[in-house]
From TrEMBL:
This is Lysophospholipid acyltransferase family protein. SMART domains: PlsC. The keyword Cell inner membrane does not apply. The keyword RNA-binding does not apply. Residues 235-256 are annotated as: Disordered. PANTHER family: 1-ACYL-SN-GLYCEROL-3-PHOSPHATE ACYLTRANSFERASE (PTHR10434).
Amino acid sequence: MLYGAMKVTVGGSLKLAFRPWVEGLEHIPADGPAILASNHLSFSDSFFLPAVLDRKVTFIAKAEYFNTPGVKGRLTAAFFKGVGQLPVDRSGARGAGEAAIKSGIEVLERGELFGIYPEGTRSPDGRLYRGKPGGLARVALATGAPVVPVAMIDTEKIQPPGQVMPKLMRPGIRIGKPLDFSRYQGMEHDRFVLRAVTDEVMYEIMKLSGQEYVDMYATAMKRQLAEAAKAEKAAKAEKAAKNDKAAKAGTDRAGT
């Protein structure tokens, strides 16, 4: 009931304000379980995709959104539950992965749609990064559910980092044909099979989105960018300190 109300209010508002265009809706199964595997450009991806679908789709979200104390925390938790997101504790990498897999299997066993971002995190620069082989492939092989590739387009341009007000523009959603991995049934613990399944899905997402593909994990790229920013900040601080020292030395000489 809450999901339906949120879909009408939040989903309806998003559709009215941003008018997202959609291609390939016919590829979403009318009933039964399916995995929607999407690229991840923006926080809003998990809202725009459900807004254009008739069926409920469940994503996973970090547990912090659900257990923050206070009135604001309770409202945030209610909102995320209302838009069909499940909490996953990410305090331990392996534990988080297993929790996500378990949650996905439970959703699919109920005959519902499960949404997942194979990259594991938002793209730091709009490019498509290597998919992580654990969650998506294991859930697909454990349940036999078809994988529907999805490409979110231009959602990162609506509210770039540092911009308070969102830009009113039309993002896009392109949905591909379902992929069948039944040929790998029972092989969900074979790491080579998991990699092959993940790479096939990422290739289809790349074709749909038109993004440049980067053969590394987005998390690794984010670390590189953070380290580069830290090094640049340190270099600027060192340069400023040298300039201050030189200025002080000049002042001292002028005073003698």
